[in-house]
Amino acid sequence: MRIVLPRSGASCDLHGMVATLGRLFLDAVAPRRCAGCDAVSEEPICGLCHEVLQTGPTPAPWRLPTVVAFAAFEFDGVVREVLHRGKFQGDRAALEALSRLACPRLGRVPRPDAVLAVPLGRRRRRQRGYNQAEVIAAVLAEAEHVPLLDGLVRCRETAPQAKRDEAARLANIAGAFAWHGVPLGSAGVWLVDDVLTTGATAMAAATVLAEAGARRVTAVVLARVL
Ligand SMILES: [Zn+2]
Fold first, then answer.
1. Per-residue pLDDT tens for 57-74?
2. Residue 204 lies in a domain
3. What gap in Å lies between CA 169 and CA 225, rounded to an integer?
4. Distance 51 CA to ligand 1 centre (A)
5. In this predicted model, what pLDDT tens digit does every residue of 128-178 receive, in sequence order?
6. Measuring CA to CA, which residue among 47, 57, 59 is closest to residue 225?
């Protein structure tokens, strides 16, 4: 916005000025830091961490009973830090940046007709303000030029999975999902989540999607815990 002062004819770019002052203020109080290594960085993920991420290994596909899972990264180091910030500290920009870095590493995954995210329970979504899996799925859907579908719902809250063993996770998650969306009409879909541990969540959700008509469900995650 350009404001022309009527008497003197002097002008100032108010929008630019406010933006610059705001930036200076933010830099002074809380400079942006890299989500991977905490170094001061203009970008959500700094150049060094970019390099670490681009050169790190990609886990092999994992064949589970009801779904094949692909991960872009191992859940370790920089990846673990970025995901933690994206999930628990509201750093969506870092999550999006990591998702964009994941795209070229997903070349061998069967191409999708649509992408959808593993849903969060309503209470947890409210606490966090967003579903991290949806943030990731939106980036992947855009990169693949396919729609991002909703319709997979979590019909009951499940206790956190992190400290359970495999059998307990399966029992905890069974029946937690339902499909309330349009008929999937033999589409191949990517079921997207942030992290894959035992695969119990992916298997439960994939079963529901197959019942809803999906021709092929592929679990796609940013990182796998090995
Ligand atoms: Zn960094």
1. 999 999 999 999 999 999
2. yes
3. 15
4. 9
5. 899 999 999 999 999 999 999 999 999 877 666 656 677 777 777 778 899
6. 59
Whether 30 and 39 have beta carbons less than 8 Å apart is answered as: no
Q: How far is the CA of 175 from the centre of ligand 1 (A)?
A: 40
Contact 182, 151 (CB under 8 A): yes
Q: What is the DSSP letter of 13?
A: E
How many other C-beta atoms are found inside a 10 Å radius of the C-beta of residue 144? 18
Residue 48 lies in a domain: no
Structure tokens at 196: 């894959």
| Residue 88 belongs to domain spanning | 57-224
Tokens encoding 215:
């021709």
User: Looking only at Cα atoms, what is the longest distance across the chain?
Assistant: 77
Token pair 């579908």 in the structure block, residue = 149
Strand 114-117 and strand 148-149: the pairing is parallel
Q: How far is the CA of 81 from the centre of ligand 1 (A)?
A: 10
For residue 44, report the distance from its CA to the centre of ligand 1, in Å: 8
Counting the structural domains of the chain, the total is 1
State the Cα–Cα distance between residues 39 and 31, nearest whole angstrom.
10
For residue 71, report the distance from its CA to the centre of ligand 1, in Å. 21
Continuous H helices in the chain: 14-29, 47-55, 77-88, 92-102, 122-128, 132-144, 166-173, 200-211
Placement of tokens 């069974």 in the chain: 174
What is the overall mean pLDDT for the chain?
A: 87
Contacts of 96 (CB under 8 A, 6+ apart): 44, 135, 139
Asked, for residue 108, whether it belongs to a domain, the answer is yes
Q: Is residue 170 part of a domain?
A: yes
Q: Return the CATH number at 88.
A: 3.40.50
